[in-house]
Amino acid sequence: MLYIIDTANIEKIKHCIEYYPIAGVTTNPTIISKEHTDFIDLIRKIEDVIGNDRMFHIQLTGDTAEQMMEEAKALRNVIGDNLYVKIPVGEEGLKATMKLHKEGFHITETAIFTQQQALMAAMAGADFVAPYVNRLDNIVSDGVNVVGEIASMFQRYGLKTKVLAASFKTAEQVHKISMVGGHAVTVNPEILESLIYHPLTMYAIDDFKADWESVYGKKTIMDMVKEKEQ
Length: 230
Ligand code: G3P
Description:
By secondary structure, the chain is an alpha/beta fold. It is 55% helix and 17% strand. The radius of gyration is 21 Å and the shape is globular. SN-glycerol-3-phosphate (G3P) binds at residues 6, 26, 28, 132, 134-135, 166-167, 186.
């Protein structure tokens, strides 16, 4: 499973990559606009923070394939080889995907709501497809099932394209993606933190500390090692 963070907030990205095994960052125009700052300065800062070993997914905003290709080339000059251009699925998007794939770009086809959109994007050359789980659940569809069927189709056809499930509101949705063969999830920092939180874990850690202190007081393992060395 690849854990990716769905934010453009620098402080949150710094925190997440320090404490979690994060494979990259995803953004979209909504996420970028929340930061109310210069777009190019912002993506340069994010790239500095995450380094070029992590993926950086940035969505194109052009309406035509030609505009998208121009944007993709300009962004690759700014970001480098870890850039994944996010392209909304559609005729212009597929045209751009086929051409950019031939030119060696990494591509994430986004705004995916159906299995056939995902299959078409994979055949066009997308590296990732991003189905929107919670938005599917919101329209009485079943986001997890859609992801599971896409993952099965890719396996059945021997496609290398990976499923990057997106749009989550609960830790349970994320967990279910890992049970149906999703390859990657992109989640906001709050959902990421909720994936490791459990009150019984907190109680267990508090109990360990109390039992230790009842015998050794505030002495740490290192205090004891140093005492023996003297
Ligand atoms: O990466 C796509 C994702 O940001 C959409 O999430 O919460 O707006 O449905 P949401």
